Amino acid sequence: MTYDHPRIQVLLDEDGVRVVVLSGEFDVDSVGPLAQVLADAAREGVRRVVDIARVTFADSSLLNILLAGDREDHLIVAGPVPEQFAQLLRLFAAEMELEIAPTLAEARGRSTRSSSSE
Length: 118
What we know:
Layout: E1 7-10, E2 17-26, H1 32-44, E3 47-58, H2 60-72, E4 75-78, H3 83-91, E5 99-101, H4 104-116
Parallel strand pairs: 2-3, 3-4, 4-5
Antiparallel strand pairs: 1-2
Helix pairs in contact: 1-2
Pfam families: STAS_2
Protein name: Anti-sigma factor antagonist
């Protein structure tokens, strides 16, 4: 069994949107840095998009960080959502609480539109 180390990549802000790209496995031991990245972006007043397309495993810790980040200041989750995480979303009925876009491009577009409509 191999472990796919978690990776968090923060892309340069464009049009007031900060994209956070996740890859690898996320659990209670690895979500702390993501929580900090999302909190920093919220404090700075930038829109947040979290790309989870390359997440190979996630437990409820990642889901909790995304839900908390969304409650703090709206964020958009970009897919395609990996099947394992989609099951977690359904299990906790979280797909009704989080805004999920099928692609990163669509998530960026939604985020840009929502920031320009304020």
